[in-house]
């Protein structure tokens, strides 16, 4: 859904193909993408630091 030229997070990333093996996945690709973007906006320095801040 486009509202005033702004698209949703899901719409923006829907074209990214998930090439993972489905039975071996726990989290959706959408969830992983959202966490990565949120961690970047929060200023984390890599995945280890993002994990340290997951409960804050």
Protein model, in words:
By secondary structure, the protein is mainly α. The protein has a domain at 27-56. The protein is 43% helix and 0% strand. The chain contains three helices and no strands. The longest helix has 13 residues, at 29-41.
Secondary structure topology:
Layout (H helix, E strand, L loop, with lengths): L8 H5 L15 H13 L5 H6 L4
Radius of gyration: 14 Å
Strand content: under 5%
Count of alpha/pi helices:
3
Shape verdict: flat
Query: What is the rounded distance between the termini?
Result: 31 Å
The total of beta strands comes to 0
Low-pLDDT runs of 5+ residues are none
Structural class: mainly alpha
Order of helices and strands: HHH
Mean pLDDT value: 84
**Mind summarizing the main beta sheet?**
none
Helix content: 40-55%
């Amino acid at each position: 859904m486009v509202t005033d030229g702004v698209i949703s997070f899901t719409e923006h990333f829907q074209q990214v193909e998930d090439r993972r093996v489905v039975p071996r996945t726990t989290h959706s690709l959408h969830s992983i993408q959202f966490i990565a973007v949120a961690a970047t906006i929060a200023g984390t320095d890599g995945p280890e630091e993002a994990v340290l801040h997951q409960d804050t």
